[in-house]
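Subject: design request, 385 residues
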């Protein structure tokens, strides 16, 4: 086709978009502002829609080989009682795959390996896009300018390009929750592949990996910007009387491995995901809370859909209008559902509300949790030609 694209942001969505665009014949440059690709982050769960998107761009099998299927787990109380069980085998029967867990670093590496090394430029920051030329867009890069037929803004929830395109938009908002997470230094004896535990305004969860290590995360109701002198010691204090294997997960963690981030979201939806020849993708378009585990999956859906519409529609602006029409309603619906899941889950603090929720979960049929996951994970990607 001879078309060229610049992808701003080398995260999961940006890399997947670059792979998809190359598959349909585009020349792609990915610009990542981080000077070193240290793949900071802990672990991630991928639902069937994310796996199917990865299949569509040819990296699904590699990700499956590096990931731990989540067949066992569910939701618990701090004392260890079960509120709901997750049936990974039932999900596999319905969708062809269970949920899988993988270190973010491994996923990033597999996505990068699907691209030629010269297509990734690191340590460079794009702060603006010049749209003065009606036929092309120009991306300032250090002392040079890259011309491109398409720019993909995949630069995260604090996207500078989104701010430029929508100066009146309020941008990301604090969700009211903060998250601490880490990967254990060594294997931990776990009885489940995945688990969430809900307390009063707090959640603790884990994801098992193939090498026996695990990711854990702790989500807390908190004012924004609160930080602890010793985050791991604070987690031990907060969760010292919660059930096993929570103490073991914390004991298997190096203090310097703990990451701490406030959870922000685009609470005010964008009016469109495309402006001229610029497409917004992933967190830059629909940053959401992690309560449904769908943030990365929705970014992967974006990437495949973007490549598919560009493969079938030669006019870029028309293709991006289709992209917006297909992606915005679904991704914004998932974002609303994730926000609501957090309010009914980890963020609840009133004892009566917690008791009512827990009773409802215990009384719900075993199929209910499967149906909840299917509502968002049952997505079929378009074909890339």
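Subject: RE: design request

Done. Sequence follows.
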């Amino acid at each position: 086709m001879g078309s060229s694209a610049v992808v701003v942001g080398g995260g999961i969505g940006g890399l997947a978009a670059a792979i998809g665009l190359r598959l349909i014949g585009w020349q792609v440059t990915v610009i990542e502002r981080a000077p070193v690709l240290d793949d900071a982050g802990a672990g991630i769960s991928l639902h069937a829609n994310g796996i199917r998107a990865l299949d569509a761009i040819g990296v699904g099998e590699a990700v499956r080989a590096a990931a731990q299927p989540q067949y066992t787990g569910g939701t618990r109380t701090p004392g260890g009682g079960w509120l709901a069980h997750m049936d990974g085998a039932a999900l596999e029967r319905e969708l062809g795959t269970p949920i899988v867990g993988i270190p973010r670093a491994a996923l990033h590496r597999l996505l990068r390996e699907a691209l030629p090394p010269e297509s990734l430029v690191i340590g460079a920051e794009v702060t603006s896009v010049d749209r003065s030329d009606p036929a092309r867009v120009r991306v300032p890069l250090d002392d040079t300018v890259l011309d491109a037929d398409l720019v993909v803004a995949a630069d995260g929830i604090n996207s500078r390009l989104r701010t430029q395109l929508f100066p009146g938009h309020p941008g990301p908002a604090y969700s009211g929750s903060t998250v601490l997470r880490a990967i254990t230094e060594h294997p931990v004896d776990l009885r489940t592949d995945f688990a969430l535990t809900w307390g009063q305004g707090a959640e603790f969860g884990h994801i098992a990996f193939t090498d026996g290590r695990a990711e854990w995360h702790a989500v807390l109701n908190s004012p924004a910007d609160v930080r602890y002198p010793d985050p791991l010691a604070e987690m031990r204090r907060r969760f010292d009387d919660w059930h096993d294997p929570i103490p073991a997960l914390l004991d298997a963690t190096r203090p310097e491995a703990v990451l701490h981030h406030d959870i922000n979201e685009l609470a005010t939806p964008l009016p469109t995901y495309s402006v001229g020849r610029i497409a917004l993708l992933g967190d830059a378009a629909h940053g959401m809370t992690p309560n449904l585990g769908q943030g990365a999956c929705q970014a992967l859906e974006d990437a495949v859909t973007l490549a598919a519409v560009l493969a079938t529609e030669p006019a870029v602006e028309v293709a991006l209008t289709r992209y917006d029409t297909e992606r915005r309603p679904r991704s914004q619906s998932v974002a609303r559902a994730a926000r609501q899941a957090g309010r009914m889950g980890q963020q609840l603090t009133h004892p009566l509300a917690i008791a009512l929720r827990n009773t409802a979960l215990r009384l719900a049929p075993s199929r209910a949790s499967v149906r909840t996951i299917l509502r968002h994970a049952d997505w079929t990607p378009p074909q890339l030609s």
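The longest strand covers residues 173-183.
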